[in-house]
Amino acid sequence: MFSHTLTAVFVALPFLAQSAFAGDCTRSYTIKEGDICDSISAANNVSTYQLSAINVGVIDSTCSNLMPGNTICLGYAGEDCSTTYTVVADDSCEMIADNHRVNTTILHLNNPQIDQDCSNVYIGEVLCVGDKVQVPPAPGNNFVPGAVIPTTAAPAKPKPTAPGAGAPAVPAPAPTTSAKVLPTPAPAPPKGDHHDDGDDVDDEDLPFCDEL
Ligand SMILES: *[C@@H]1O[C@H](CO)[C@@H](O)[C@H](O)[C@H]1NC(C)=O
Ligand SMILES: *[C@@H]1O[C@H](CO)[C@@H](O)[C@H](O)[C@H]1NC(C)=O
Fold first, then answer.
1. 20 to 30 Å CA-CA from 112: which of 6, 41, 102, 206?
2. pLDDT tens track of the chain, all 212 residues?
């Protein structure tokens, strides 16, 4: 059965010479209409990096040359991570590593396209979450397979905006506003018919907080 698979791979991709020597292909996939690299990855438990690394010279760096009917290799013997996770919104590398009981060192080694801050992980990216290093090495020349983010992809973490907006852990803002400090009359008419300093402070705080 494996020899059949191998034949199919090498017949379909006679120009695979660059990566053919790297290992025995133990699983393969025939491309279908409408496939994108990450859909193939997610459906077959092969990481974004591994799919790209194995198919250097076959699939281009933006994954724009998938040909329906062609067969690609998904895993090499002994270098095949099939424990994968597909990134969703708000994921961080720490969360992913914790949830799969791997540490971030191993996570980065298995997914070398992830930058040091984990800021380039995108929704739909497929990561190897195996607990040992088990992916094929990068081909060298500073080329990191799987590093090109699809143009339609959204980052897992949106860029940080104003710090702490709405976050309960953030300390309360400075307790005074100019409206309370300055002796000039406030624009709003008094609500009560008598002065009560404690109540006034509370009432004025509420709309101010709402605007935050
Ligand atoms: C991918 O992994 C999941 C979780 O281990 C498993 O349920 C599923 O059958 C796997 N799919 C393939 C195509 O191997
Ligand atoms: C992760 O585990 C490896 C192997 O056990 C170890 O060498 C490495 O220092 C660990 N990294 C972190 C960040 O704990």
1. 6
2. 444 444 444 444 434 434 445 579 999 999 999 999 999 999 999 999 999 999 999 999 999 999 999 999 999 999 999 999 999 999 999 999 999 999 999 999 999 999 999 999 999 999 999 999 999 988 877 889 999 999 989 999 877 665 554 444 444 444 433 333 344 444 454 444 444 444 444 444 444 444 44
Is the C-beta atom of 94 inside 6 A of ligand 2? no
Whether residue 83 has its Cβ less than 6 Å from ligand 1: no
Superfamily of domain 2-128: LysM domain (3.10.350.10)
CB 46 within 8 Å of CB 126: yes
Domain boundaries, the chain: 2-128
pTM of the shown model: 0.68
How many alpha carbons lie under 13 Å from residue 112 in its C-beta half-sphere? 17
According to the 3-state scheme, what is the secondary structure of 40-59?
HHHHHCCCHHHHHHHCECCE
CA-proximal residue: ligand 1, atom 13 (nearest):
44
- Please tell me the residue having the least CA distance from ligand 2 atom 8: 105
Query: Which ligand lies nearest to the CA atom of residue 108 in the structure?
Result: 2
